[in-house]
Amino acid sequence: MKHDEKIFALIDINNCYVSCERFFNPLLNNVPVIVLSNNDGCAVARSNEAKAMGIKMAVPLFQIKDIVEKNHVQVLSSNYAIYAEMSRRFHSILAGYVAPHEQEIYSIDECFLDLTSFKNNYDLVEYCQGMRERIFQWIGLPVSIGIGRSKTEAKIANHMAKKAKRFNGVCNLANMDPKHRDYFWSIVDVGEVWGVGRKQNKKLNDMGINTVLDLSKANSPVIGKLFTVCMQRTVLELQGISCMAINDQPKPKQQIVASRSFGERITELDNLKEAISKYVQDAVGRLRKEKLLCGVITAFVQSSPFDTSAPYYSKAQTYKFAEPTDSVLELVEVAYRLLEKIYKSGIKYKKCGVFYSELIEKSNYTPDLLSDHETRIENENLMQAYEEIQNKFGKAKISVGPCYFKDRKWSMSRDMLSKNDFTKNGLIKVH
To answer: pTM (2 decimals)?
Structure first.
């Protein structure tokens, strides 16, 4: 390897949602398991056993009921609170292996590490095997690790680590014999390359580029002209030239969205207000966590686009605040007013939600000299008290409206939800 050659690792949790569920319920090990999307709609995670049965990603549950019943497939509702906490612990463990600027949290179940400073002093496969063992020992999650000279190459290496048992969960393309690497790349479809979407895949196939190897041998400037600069970078990255550094400082959120489909159709305005109140409060929690202020709020409602018995109805209304805010009372009040404007009687609503946009960092905002300073302080004190009570006693103890009470008419269908062992009510009891 050249002295200036970069080395990246991509650590990915295998079948993340299923693996999280198995950690808390070992009876799910070695049996087919699927996890469903909101309202128990489509399969969003599958165990290897379920994949072997031909169950595809995003397939609706009703389409695979025969397979599920015949093969005794365990079906679970998504428990995002558990997955988020397990993800936090996963990324926290990995943070112990590198400096802060060498870690990029890419998604809930993926993390990039810059291992360039380790390449001359460590056997990187052994180093990464240690990561795998620690993650499994501490939080019970199986992971695969790909090592490459670029982030794109690390992605492909991760794919190979998952697919081929010979790698034992860690594939190092950076040190692999080029002949062996070319062989493996010749049997991997080009569509598996990070950033190659369905349209690009088809266009590449039409050009005779069908495998990862084909793309790696392509002329990068020509690819850039025929596609995009990003695709040109992809080719360079497959050739071992790193074009994307670790992003250890994620950009501030451009918008916050909170919405859910209802468990059943909603027709009454009061029920819609309850639902949108919850979404506003959920979004405020994320707003406050990121230390942001909301400049614009948009409320929207939708009927089901698949309901052939009635015309599709979708409406949105936007409001711009004179001063950006993170006050839950102010945001709920405005959302109610917007909802009243877009509500139409007789519509069977399937979904509603809110968008927060024109977000600014709270520390960077300078209030107008004529603004009400005392009210702003009072709102902040109120929000702190509101958050402290919720953190200590739960959201059902204090909220705007009854939206956090159980069994609301508009609540999501989650009939197969596992218990959350991270909550006080869900703690494992020792007898």
So the answer is: 0.76
- Specify if 273 maps to a domain: yes
Domains in the chain, number: 3
- Please name the residues in contact with 279: beta carbons below 8 A apart, sequence gap of 6 or more: 258, 259, 260, 352, 353, 354
Give whole-number Cα distances, 206 to 200, 201, 233, 251, 420, in Å. 10, 9, 20, 37, 49
Q: Is residue 401 part of a domain?
A: no
* Half-sphere exposure at residue 230, Cβ-oriented, CA atoms within 13 angstroms: 6
Q: Which tops the pLDDT comparison, 254 or 135?
A: 135
| 103 and 166 both lie in a single domain | yes
Strands (E), 278-313: 292-303
Per DSSP bridges, beta strands 143-148 and 170-172 are parallel
Give me the half-sphere count of Cα atoms (radius 13 Å) on the Cβ side of residue 178: 6
Domain match, 242 and 169 both: no
CA count, 13 A, side-chain hemisphere, 16 = 20
Residue 12, number of CB atoms within 10 A of its CB: 20
Task: Kindly state whether residue 183 falls inside one of the protein's structural domains.
Answer: yes
Q: Which two tokens stand for residue 187?
A: 């049997």
Residue 415 lies in a domain: no
Note down the domain range covering 47.
1-175
| CATH number of the domain within which 81 lies | 3.30.70.270
CA atoms of 108 and 106, how far apart (whole Å): 7
Q: Pairing state of beta strands 110-114 and 8-13?
A: antiparallel
Model pLDDT for residues 46-97, shown as the tens digit of each residue: 999 999 999 999 999 999 999 999 999 999 999 988 999 999 999 999 999 9
From 227, 249, 271, the end of a domain falls on: 249
- What is the chain's length? 431
Q: Which residues have CB under 8 Å from 116's CB, separation 6+?
A: 5, 6, 7
For 161-214, the pLDDT digits (tens) are: 999 999 999 999 999 999 999 999 999 999 999 999 999 999 999 999 999 999
Q: Are 116 and 80 members of one domain?
A: yes
Residue partners of 92: CB distance under 8 A and separation at least 6: none
Residues 348 and 242 occupy one common structural domain:
no
- For 313-325, what is the HEC assignment? CEEEEEEEEEEEE
Task: Give the SS3 label for residue 366.
Answer: coil
